[in-house]
Each structure stands twice: as C-alpha cells, then as structure tokens.
Amino acid sequence: MTVLLEFDGEFAQITLNRPEVLNALSFGVLKEVSEALSKVADSDARALIVTGVGDKAFCAGADIPELMNRPLMDELEGAALGQAVFNQIADLKIPSVAVIQGYAFGGGLELALSCTFRVATDRARMGLPEVKLGLIPGYGGTQRLPRLVGEGRALDMIMSGRTIAAEEGERIGLVNRIDNEGSPLDIGKRFLEPYLKHSLCALYFAREAVQRGGRVSLADGLRIERDLSTLAYRSDDAAEGLSAFVEKRSPTFKDC
C-alpha cells in the first residue's frame, strides 16, 4: 500500500508510503489519500495526523514523470484532483496536523498547508519550487500559503522557488512548532492532545469563523462570528461547559 491508514485511540494517522521516491504524490496516491480521508471522516477519530515514511521526506511533491506530455484537459483534471483531495483534509470537522520530516516540496507542502496545523523537525526543508520548472503551484499553494503567511512572504517563496528551513518556517507562521522528540505519531499526538480536551463542535466553529472570516470584509466576518457563536451556544457541549464552570468542575464534552 502506498498510503497507510491507522487508528490509535482518538487519533487517525495517514502515512505516505513511497520512500523509494521520497513519498511523491502520483495520481494513484492522491486517490488513495482521498479514500483514506473518507474513512477518517466516517470514523470516531477526533484528530488526524499526516506523515510520510522515513526521515528523508514528508513528501517531495508530485510524481514528475507522470506530469509530462499530457493533453491540456488531463492537466486541468490533475490539478482539480489534487485540489479536491486537499479540500477533503481542510473540510474535515476534526483538527489535523502535518508532521514534516525532511523535504516538503511542491504538492507535499500543499498537502501540509491543507492541514489545520504543521509541526516540523529541525531536518525539515520546505518550498514551492514549481517556478524552476516553468510552472506554478496547482494544488492550492498560491491560495493557502498567502492566507497563512501573508502575500509578501508567499510571493517571495513562490516566485523564487527557494527552500526554507524549519526555523524560518516557524518564524513566518508556516510552521506552528518545531519538535524533534519521538516518532511522527508521537509528535503529532503531543501537539494535538491539548486541543482534544475541548468540544470538537467548538473547535470546528472556531476554525470556521477564523478561516471564513479571513476571506471577507471585517463587517462580514463579524456576521460569520455572530452566527457561528450563536450555533455554538445551542450545542449540548455549551450547556455542559457553562454548567461545569458554575459548578466548579471539569466539563465532560460529547462533541455535539
């Protein structure tokens, strides 16, 4: 299998398993990732960890030979496939983290960008080098990166095609944390565990408010926040959280 799916308690882990080609993303791998994500969405997992086999690469990008000499419509459909699969990750109702060891280039970085969070080891090297091939990113990089690090920094990375290390990634906000202790699963669980003390409903509403609000005017963003906060108040978890506060006890959330 080129994509591994495992469950460990509250956690689901999707692992790219093509170490011989630095976990490159063929179209077949993208379809396997999509199938794995559907299973995660239908499971009881409360968080997702995305990793790659080995310490050389999280994912070195697209499978370049597969991209050559294709008809125009095949190129369009390939970009649409990559975007659709990565949207599946972004649209999950549970938080996700990409644990980046080694290279995360091109489609590999775009995969990481589609996750809620990114944690890197100090061996991580990241970039969108498509411009060096006369191309531009096609799986969401031109859209997700500027929303994360700002237009100026995104244009610098995309138009230069340069590689950045984990330290710079953390400084500009591309990487949430640098962590070198343990396996990718250990790193991912350690990062996500504090979030899982909270209601998944509240986490989802909070993420939606921030992400949707960032794409509209302040006035429209405030309306999004108003509506989502009202929905949050109507949840059973909100009733439990408020009661627990008044009763001076820890809440027991049921994610609804």
From TrEMBL:
Keywords (A to Z) from UniProt: Lyase
CDD domains, per the entry: crotonase-like
Pfam families on file: ECH_1
Keyword Lyase tagged: yes
Superkingdom of origin: Bacteria
UniProt-listed GO biological process terms: fatty acid beta-oxidation
Molecular function in Gene Ontology: hydro-lyase activity
Protein family according to the UniProt entry: Belongs to the enoyl-CoA hydratase/isomerase family.
Protein's recorded name: Enoyl-CoA hydratase
